[in-house]
């Protein structure tokens, strides 16, 4: 069973009907939805050039330059430089995610998007997580501009409830501290988004020494080579398929190509049991729903 662990619900870019149709085409049985946290993303030619330069630097020998580009990809006003100044939302719409997974049976589950600087209190997270369809908490220290330590309370709750967290790290010491949560909460099931961008290999080396840290393989933040490197360094038991749709990877009809990342993972030529782990087995172990 293929499970997409990382997809942003944004009907302005892809309707739920198209998403369901694409799931059927590509054999995706379930999608873990995340509320969109920004205006629709559209990379122009310059934005795409800068994006690719950043990814190449982060993956290569100029990581410091890559992190500078990464940190500056969102300006002080909370606008995404690569995408024509698209605004970041302080309060992603979790209710929209809940309406979709309540309307479509077992096709969808949701990550509850938590911003410790926003209005949602820990009590609200606790209440939501009592519904098994809310599989865990999504947090974005980078775009929401807070240190990882601000997640301690919600991480403690998730550890207590046996719920995973999905975290998109920042590019400095405070917002990008990939060691803090797994050290302080050793029973917390922690998934770092986009193979742990912007840290990649240093994070993989640290994660390999722990039992509670995973990565997803979603987004154009990775290319085929980076996905395969993550699979080699961490092993298939620590990597989960995700898309980060509907961003990047355009299909022939102008929509999102849900098969693009699947094809890249399949080209890693993993043994069948390992491929099953990456495409859905690891998710089922983390989230028994």
Keyword list:
289 residues, alpha/beta, TIM Barrel, 8-stranded parallel beta sheet, two-stranded antiparallel ribbon, 11 helices, globular
Q: What can you tell me about this protein's structure?
A:
The longest helix has 15 residues, at 45-59. With 289 residues, the protein is of the alpha/beta class. The chain is globular, with a radius of gyration of 17 Å. An 8-stranded parallel sheet has the order 1-2-5-6-7-8-9-10. The mean pLDDT is 95. It has 11 helices and 10 strands. Strand 8 (190-192), helix 8 (201-207) and strand 9 form a beta-alpha-beta unit. Helix 2 packs across helix 3 (63-71) and helix 5 packs parallel to helix 6. 37% of the residues lie in helices and 15% in strands.
Shape call = globular
Largest sheet: 8 strands, parallel
CATH class of the largest domain: Alpha Beta
Radius of gyration: 17 Å
| DSSP strand tally | 10
Number of domains: 2
CATH superfamily name of the largest domain? Metal-dependent hydrolases
Structural class: alpha/beta
Give the CATH topology of the largest domain.
Answer: TIM Barrel
**N-to-C series of helices and strands:** EHEHHEEHEHEHEHEHEHEHH
Q: Please report which band the strand proportion falls in: under 5%, 5-15%, 15-25%, 25-35%, 35-45% or over 45%.
A: 15-25%
Query: What strand line-up does the widest sheet have?
Result: 1-2-5-6-7-8-9-10
End-to-end C-alpha gap: 13 Å
In terms of per-residue confidence, which ranges show pLDDT below 50 for 5 or more consecutive residues?
A: none
Q: Which CATH-level-2 architecture of the largest domain?
A: Alpha-Beta Barrel
């Amino acid at each position: 069973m293929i499970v997409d662990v990382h997809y942003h619900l944004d009907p302005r870019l892809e309707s739920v009907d198209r998403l369901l149709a694409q799931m059927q085409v590509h054999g995706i049985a379930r999608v873990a939805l995340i509320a969109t946290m920004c205006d629709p993303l559209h990379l122009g030619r310059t934005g795409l050039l800068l994006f690719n330069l950043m990814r190449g630097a982060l993956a290569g020998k100029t990581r410091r330059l890559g992190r500078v580009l990464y940190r500056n990809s969102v300006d002080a006003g909370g606008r995404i430089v690569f995408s024509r100044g698209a605004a970041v939302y302080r309060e992603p719409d979790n209710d929209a995610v809940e309406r979709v997974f309540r309307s479509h049976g077992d096709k969808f589950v949701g990550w509850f998007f938590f911003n410790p600087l926003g209005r949602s209190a820990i009590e609200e997270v606790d209440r939501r997580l009592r519904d098994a369809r809310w599989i865990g908490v999504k947090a974005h220290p980078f775009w929401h501009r807070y240190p990882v330590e601000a997640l301690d309370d919600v991480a403690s709750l998730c550890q207590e409830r046996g719920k995973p967290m999905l975290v998109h790290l920042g590019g400095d010491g405070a917002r990008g501290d990939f060691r803090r949560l797994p050290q302080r909460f050793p029973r917390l099931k922690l998934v770092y988004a986009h193979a742990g961008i912007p840290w990649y290999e240093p994070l993989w080396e640290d994660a390999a020494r722990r039992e509670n840290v995973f990565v997803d393989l979603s987004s154009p933040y990775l290319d085929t080579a980076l996905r395969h490197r993550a699979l080699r360094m961490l092993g298939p038991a620590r990597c989960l398929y995700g898309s980060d749709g509907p961003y990047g990877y355009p299909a022939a009809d102008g929509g999102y190509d849900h098969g693009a990342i699947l094809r890249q993972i399949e080209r890693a030529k993993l043994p069948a049991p390992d491929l099953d782990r990456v495409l859905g087995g690891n998710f089922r172990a983390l989230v028994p729903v």
